[in-house]
Amino acid sequence: MSELRFDDVRIHYGSRRHGLPAVQGVDLSVPSGQIVGLVGESGSGKSSLARAAVGLEPLSGGQILLDGRPIPRRGRNRPVQLVFQDPYSSLDPRLTIGASIAETLPRGTGRSGRRAEVNRLLELVELDPALAAGYPARLSGGQRQRVALARALAARPEVIIADEITSALDVSVQGTVLNLVRSLQAELGTSMLFISHNLAVVRYLATQLAVMYLGRIVEQGPTEAVLRDPQHPYTRDLLASVPELGGVRVEPVAAGPAEADPPDPHQPPPGCPYHPRCPIGPLVRPERELCRTSRPEPVHRHQAACHFAGAANAQPLSVLTGGDRRESA
Amino acid sequence: MSEAIEASTTRATEPDRLAARARRSRWLPVLLSPVGAGAGIGLFLLLILAVFGPAVWRKRAEQADVAHMLQGPSAAHWAGTDNLGRDLFARVMVATRLSVELALTATVIAVVAGFCLGAAGFVLGRRANRAVAAVVNVAVAFPGILLALFFAVIFGVGAKGAVLAIGFAGAPAFARLTQTLVAGVEKRDFVAAAHVAGIGRPRVLLRHVLPNIAEPLIVNATIGAGGAFLSFASLSFLGLGVQAPRYDWGRLLGDGLTGIYTQPVAALAPGIAVILAGLAFNLFGEALAKGVGVTATINRPIRGRIRPPVGVPAAPDRPAGAEVTGEADDVLSVQGLTVSFASAAGRVHPVRGVDFRLGRGEAVGIVGESGSGKSLTALAIAQLIEPPGQVRAGQLRFLGHDLLAEPAHRNRRLLGTSLALVFQDPMTSFNPTRRIGSQLAEVGRRHGGLSRRAAAARVVDRLRSVRVPAAERRARQYPHEYSGGMRQRAMIGMGLMGSPALIIADEPTTALDVTVQRQVLDLLQSIRAADGVSLLLISHDIAVVGQVCDRVLVMYAGRIIEELPASALARDSRHPYTRALIAAVPHMQTDRDRPLAVIPGRAPDPAEVPPGCAFAPRCPLASEQCRSSEPPLLADAQGRRVACWHADQVTAGQAGPTIGTPNGARA
Amino acid sequence: MTSLAVPARSIGAVLNNSWVSFGLRRAGRLVVSLWVLVTASFLMIHLIPGDPVRAALGIGAPPSLVQARRHALGLDQPLLSQYLHYLHGVLTGDFGISMTSELPVSEIISQRLPATLALSLLAFLVALLIAVPLGTGLGVLTRGGRARGAELAFTTASAIFGAIPDFLAGVLLVWLFAVRLHWFPVAGRGGPSSYVLPVLALAIGPGAVLARILRVELLAVLQQDFVRTARAKRLPALAIYLKHALPNALTSTITLGGLLLSVMVAGTVLVENVFAWPGLGSTIVSSILDKDYPVVQAVVLVYGFGVLLVNLAVDIALALLDPRSTIREA
Fold first, then answer.
1. Each residue of A264-303: pLDDT tens digit?
2. C219 touches C143 (CB < 8 A)
3. Which residues of chain B have a pLDDT value below 50?
4. Where are the beta strands (DSSP E) in B300-345?
5. Does domain B99-296 have CATH number 1.10.10.10?
6. d(CA B205, CA B185)
7. CA nearest A234 in B: which residue?
8. Taking CA atoms, what residue in C is nearest to B144?
9. What is the dotted CATH code of the domain comprising A4-91+151-213?
């Protein structure tokens, strides 16, 4: 029941000149008891942010606070836990399921106490407690992710960070894990930072949404508001790229510069990081030199970091228009 | 679902049950393989000799018989006698114990010292790790014998010095191996999870890292033990090893070599003993490595892959289904396509009878989850399945040519110019050691008969057409200098070097970001529009397929279970699996107040496809008929096809069956 | 910072060139390794338990002689000044005087080095000539599980050949071809025919191992995605093997080839003793037995330096072959 806050967090790998500036000044807050979605593509730095929050990466600047206090980086008391993306790498193949889960339990529980707790956790994630004696090789991807969730819960965390936890799962299994996450979060009140590149999944789970690009948050706000009325051209690009079944393809506002590839995170562009691809930026409208030279501040609606957010030519993108929309099941 | 080859442990993938089963009984096959059995017996004999040899032969070995010095082999002395008339054969037998003891002790020293050195970096943190790595790198550069000599100078001649020398000389190699193995395990998430749980580094090392690297270490230790025999022989030959009156094989070898030209057996006997002992350990270690799925890495590059054995299984009987009526100008016409492997679990048919056709300019998508057989279908059509995989089909025609009848090289030019392929992983699909331009030009020069200059020009032209910026400069670059999206576009460009009638794209955008995905899909669409090229798109993402293609084939457990126009996907699918799949995918209008739809159970492993309809175990409409007999793929008046006994119960407009309740669903 | 920007930028441009930075990194590593080598060979003497000089002169040697010898070798100086003196000597080519022959060590080395070089280089070439066609050919033959019999035969044969130590191979070769058949001379370095047996003895084992590894590597490479792409382009089989598969299989084979060359360089130690070959190998053994430490130190240094050079050559060859390796971090 705590608020996780990222305060001007910077993470830089490697040397000053040749290294990778993975995260460049992120301000993000996960309010107590809520799910915040963090969306970004490869190179956005979202995984680095997650790893830094649990102590796996050192910070180069800023701080990460839990209820105003720094998060312990050593010792057994770890109120922030992380669930990883790859179900086949997150469980030690040599340990039984029960042993893997019990590892995270706080110290001091006796043997029978541990066993009872492991059983309780397995039931919480809707798995048969008899699985505790078995090995991960027996389980499917979805089941492994649920065990990983149980392991994270064993530490009685106040915040759980889920890093692309369904990206490696088959579609038919994804729903189980997502439903579970939703119900657990509602039941336990744990705060959660849900990271994904899949907008539809994030929309389903999160009440707040933050969009990351090249180490910075370019837009954040209530999920509905951000998706209904995106302010930043990158958010619009993301929305337009989501393939939708059975509907009119949503067109982006304007065609971006032809085939601009995602830039190399090792050498972020000066000024606004998105300007080489921006459909309303200097490559399309040469008078907007500002984008090349000065970094936008998050002062607009949804804290959109764009010089021209909400300006005249940027019509709000309505995702709810379009013909034949199907109902959900 | 992208792949990564682990350092030395078996690669785990989604259909893991075969591998898991194999892992359970993996020690037995080791002992049953010819090499493993032979080496195993050799080791066993060695052990017996080491334990009992002295008891049996010591008296004979010590018995000096001055009258019969330096004699050749005879009935009384099988290997002849030495310079004091002692029976050489007996001496070789007795020497077994000392030789084995020394070799094993030295190996243990090498492994333990190497492991401690290599693992020290893990425990002490990043900086220490780098320092240790630097030291190990320097030490490993020196071959064992040099190090052994170096240490022999320090520790002095004699058995003890030799053991220490060879032990420490072998340590750097094990340190390097340990480092590599630890680095491989360290990357895996369960180690990170242990760190996040607050568990100290030494405990993580012992609890998580060590058990996961024990196997390769043991295998390499076994091989190292084999090498130790040779090292001892070398040192003793030089006079630096075991000193008189003790004797091991090396000592006997050294003594015997002085009289090699007159009495060769004196040296041959211990020499053969050394070779045999070394071989036994080496071969056993290698057999272990193969059986356990690990590649011995001390002297080898690190790679491993399990291959199913060869076999020619017969295809199962197919129920009579709708005949695919081909039309004259079809680009592709497939009937009864089957792909099979023989594996440890028996005959496996990942693709079981696929029929469809593809007309000019059409885009057809194949949708399915992992294990559905969609990728293998594409590979089989493209004639890229090699033995031990077997492809069978009633008919497989591309642009009117029968791909099965004619031998492969006849179709080479046709396939090389008219068929373009785009694979899933752009990172690994290009040869990393050659420039992109030359890889594209190959097609033009081989099949188009272009000169070098003409081919180069065409390369630049094609790269431009797929919108790779600065095409001339880019053509001279290597694949690793391209981004993922650009590599995929270069891949498409390569396919456009000829004038393809069909592009087969196997999960072309799965490994790409969604914004890049859109660009690549747009590119494919524009190529279709411009040149009337047909497209066969394989994907697990039903939305992508629905957006790009005209017609969609849904595959499950190796069969096509529905074929429908893309416009009908959203509301009008007939097969329960298709409906369930579509319902399960969250989209931007998914009702946030209801739980997500879920399909209970798992898709069957190709080795365990149930009789009857493969989807029956998970289907709410399943009846006895479904479980016992497989529904044929039947066409209706509009040309749509469905393979379901209850397809008529699922008509257009009706809400799909509720499949799976979220709480209590045990997937 | 801005005043340094311009020159910094051009230096940066030079440094950013991956070849230059690769070269600098490699050179740096070489220097460090050399320093470790020199220090190790220096420490070698001082790590010997007991008094090396007394051990060399024998127990009955008069103390004044021992003292004089210690002084001559500089062993009565403090450790640090001995070390600096040694470093200086190495850099100027002065390795001291041999304790047994009283000759300058550098002279001994320059006399004996060419024989060892000739032997090891020739053996390396022969090993390559055996291994590359054999390994590649068998790799192609046994791909996809074909020709199981050939695979078994090759694996076993190469294991056996690889398991025979080089000196034993030398002895067997001598016994068979020199003593029994009189085809080649028994020992010594003379005309071309005297090279045959020693070179073979050195080359057979490593050649067999290299062939084996090359086959495994080729098989692994044939499974890679880009080979599937090449097949999709319908290139003829020969082109696929030679232009796509082999260069990528060579990458790790070169690394191992380098290792084997080092092994071969070290193997000369043993083989030279079998064939009475007048090279550094026989020198170092006799020096160890005679406890002639200055010679031992110098020869260890020379061998070590040779190994480091081989590693450098391997790295350069790798960089030429696989452009990604220049970018990989040191």
1. 777 888 888 888 888 888 877 888 888 888 888 888 888 8
2. yes
3. 1-24, 295-323, 652-667
4. 332-343
5. no
6. 10
7. B515
8. C263
9. 3.40.50.300
